[in-house]
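Two entries, shown back to back:
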Amino acid sequence: MNAVPAADVRGTGEAEGRTGGCLCGRVRFTTRGPAVFPHTCACAHCQKLGGTPVMWWVGFETVTWTGDSEPTWYETFPGEAKRGFCPTCGSRVAAIDADIPEIGINVTALDDTGATDLVPRHASFRDNAAPWLPPLPETAPSTRHSSQADLP
């Protein structure tokens, strides 16, 4: 997910009980807690995993797997990070990074992606992003909490 820890950047809304899952419905989940660090990532791993110029991530303190299957995990950085996908349809749904307490969720795996606290507020690996995409601010760790007033 390439995010910063929860104490650094939080979304503004509570994300209690959000649901989501993969394309075929085999992997389903419910989140608990506020949306943390909504951002896009254009690292080479996200580009290859997603088959897209950027992936759209957000963290949640708790994710409960509620479907017929949990994700299959692939270690993108052994011992440091792994990405979860549906073993049936291949949808990318989650990320776990060793240095981040939240579980990253690919926002497009959520059933409802329209909430304002999911709007990407930062971009990881911006220098690797497609030049035709409008830029978001460069991701940098912060010691203060973000607020809606920080949005451009």
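entry 2 starts here
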Amino acid sequence: MDAAGTAGAAAAAVTTTGFTPTCHTASNYDHVAAGRAYQSGGNTYANGSQQGMGLWNAFTTHALKQTAPGYYIVADSGCSA
């Protein structure tokens, strides 16, 4: 609307990329091998969010939710896509 309250032309329709979140449950070692996390100093961190996941080994397991391309969050309390 302009200063007089007259409506202007409608805006173009908005489109999205259609990204669908995904969930992955695996050991910290396997998350790193799959590119969902990285290890530094013997610890594991989720790609994107940098959330700590504990020791980099095959015995510690977490669920990671990919919320955007290359961005993962720890979702141990419930990982539904």
